[in-house]
Design a protein that fits this description.
131 residues, mainly alpha, two-stranded antiparallel sheet
Amino acid sequence: MIRHTISLAVLALALAANAAAAQPSGTGQALERNFDAQISSADQLAWLQQMSSAPNHVGSPHDKANADFELALFKQWGWDAHIERFDVLYPTPISTTVELIAPQRVTLGGQEPAIADDPTSANTVGALPPQ
């Protein structure tokens, strides 16, 4: 969730900065008003819903889709943007187990139940095992 919040903030700032750069120089207050006018909470909500609609850990198909989505937005706003690829070693767990062994043995963890108000919370196909 933190990554999405940062991505949304970067996207909003990029959009506003692009609009501010297109305006002739003016007072600081006018630039600030213009900046604020370019930030849409409806856009940010739509972006957050799209970016969090499927598991998006490193190397997942949805993670790539999110990168392409953000790239398209930057290009739409006139930025000279591109995606750089880096091959890194990223250990991917096959399974995880958390156990309390004293005073009695209890196995903890597992997949959390879906949340009724979040239609994507049950979308765990391709997700890493819960930790």
